[in-house]
Design a protein that fits this description.
Blueprint lengths: L1 E12 L2 E12 L3 E5 L6 H8 L7 E6 L8 H4 L2 E4 L11 H11 L5 H10 L13 H14 L4 E5 L7 H18 L2 E5 L3 H7 L2 E6 L2 E7 H7 E7 L11 E7 L3 E7 L10 E3 L3 H10 L13
Parallel strand pairs: 3-7, 3-8, 5-6, 6-7
Antiparallel strand pairs: 1-2, 1-4, 8-9, 10-12, 10-13, 11-12
Helix pairs in contact: 4-5, 5-6
Protein name: ABC transporter ATP-binding protein
GO molecular function: ATP binding; ATP hydrolysis activity
Keywords: ATP-binding, Nucleotide-binding, Transport
């Protein structure tokens, strides 16, 4: 099942394009990391998927329906915005009561047990919570509505390392227990590597690479050797980036085939290096291979 499908998706604000011609497909059952530079369109994409914005061009389908098209569709999607918004004048229990009123599939037991396990006082006003506690409250509300898809926009960006770790641990427990599909945007690739099994790199609204993290890491290789023309590489080696000195060529290739040329020294990449290569090389040196699923 596809939980998010966009085709030629775009959003314009007067003269400014926030998203242009974005096309991607995300299957159910994944925790997908959405990464890219500032201005790539990540937040705009998530806001459209949540039904908070209407696209200017293109189409989008989320959990089999049009985002924001009615109560039934809204119930399928949970959304935690970048600033993990809560109402400062309302208590934690007020938030849970409001969540129950607004969401027909609300799981009151789940919400109350999470708040108890986190050691939070239900009577405490949200305005007196720490950043990590506000994030956990927002996550609790997002999970307790029992969505099919949970969208998280930079949910840990403002948290300290301990709060980030606790948030991500709780997220993974919720995914395991409730079978959630998740799309989470973040600049913190190391955090994504801990929780995500699927990756989308978005640069200037375009999907530069998409696939399962394990497969992406296994099929990307950094090759170093004597200087050579890239046209001499096998046709099945898609060049992501290349650097040359007078004597040496270093190239990042993506291929499912083994590297057989003995003149190359072959190195593997971590997820952060892989993401940075795609972000810093917005166009490939040779046409891309078909997207790996």
């Amino acid at each position: 099942m596809t939980v998010l499908r966009a085709q030629g998706l775009g959003k314009r604000y007067k003269r400014k394009e926030a998203l242009t011609g974005c096309t991607l497909e995300i299957e159910a059952g994944h925790v997908t990391g959405l990464v890219g530079p500032n201005g790539a369109g990540k937040s705009t994409l998530l806001n459209i998927a949540a039904g908070m914005l209407e696209p200017t061009t293109g189409t989008i389908e989320v959990c089999g329906g049009v985002p924001g098209s009615g109560p039934e569709q809204l119930a399928k999607v949970g959304y935690v915005a970048q600033n993990t918004p809560v109402y400062s004048g309302l208590s934690i229990e007020d938030h849970l009561r409001l969540g129950a009123h607004l969401n027909p599939g609300w799981d009151a037991s789940l919400a109350e047990k999470r708040i108890e396990r986190l050691g939070l006082d239900p009577k405490q006003p949200a305005g007196r919570l720490s950043g990590g506690q506000r994030a956990q409250l927002a996550l609790t509300i997002g999970i307790a509505k029992r969505p099919e898809l949970l969208l998280l926009d930079e949910p840990v960006a403002a948290l300290d390392p301990l709060a980030r770790r606790e948030f991500l641990q709780d997220l993974m427990e919720a995914v395991a227990e409730h079978g959630l599909s998740v799309v989470m945007s973040s600049h913190l690739v190391n955090d994504l590597e801990r929780v995500c099994d699927h990756l989308v790199v978005l640069v200037a609204s375009q999907v530069r690479v998409i696939g399962e993290v394990e497969t992406l890491l296994a099929t990307h290789h950094r090759l170093s050797g004597p200087r050579r023309d890239l046209d001499t590489l096998p046709a099945d080696q898609h060049v992501v980036s290349a650097k040359h000195t007078d004597r040496q060529t270093t190239v990042l290739v993506r291929t499912e085939a083994p590297i057989l040329d003995p003149s190359w020294t072959v190195g593997q990449l971590g997820l952060e290096d892989l993401v940075l290569e795609y972000m810093s090389n917005p166009t490939a040196a040779r046409p891309a291979l078909e997207v790996l699923r």
